[in-house]
Amino acid sequence: MSSLRRNPPRFVPTLTQVVETASVSVAPDVEQLVQLVLKQIDARLELRLREVTELLVQEQLQNLRLSLGAEMEPLVRQSVAQAMSAQENQNEMK
Predict the structure, then answer these.
(1) How far apart are the first and last CA of the chain?
(2) CB neighbours of 13 closer than 8 A, spacing ≥ 6?
(3) Three-class SS state of 94
(4) What is the pTM of this model?
(5) Backbone φ and ψ of 35, nearest 5°
């Protein structure tokens, strides 16, 4: 028996191509499409929501820093003035 060499066919579909072709031939129903679109929108909304929330939190933190700094400055000035006055009074008594 002689072994004959056969040439493979020019086009041999792969499993991926077969699956893709089969999935395209089946029309999805409206509910599946709606759910698919909503899932994609949810992912994008989640990302955008995180970005906007982070920006708003940073802005609020900056505003709080400025506000607290403005509140603290007169208190620090008053405390330093009182401490210096008390120190001067002690030096005068000596």
Answers:
(1) 126
(2) 21
(3) coil
(4) 0.47
(5) -65, -40
CA 29, CA 36: separation in Å to the nearest integer?
Answer: 11
The pLDDT tens digits of the residues spanning 14-45 come to 656 555 555 555 667 999 999 999 999 998 99
User: Rounded CA gap, 23 and 19, in Å?
Assistant: 6
- Residue 8's SS3 state is coil
Distance CA 12, CA 26 (A): 22
Letter string b/e over residues 7-44, b meaning 16 or more CB atoms within 10 A of that residue's CB:
eeeeeeeeeeeeeeeeeeeeeeeeeeeeeeeeeeeeee
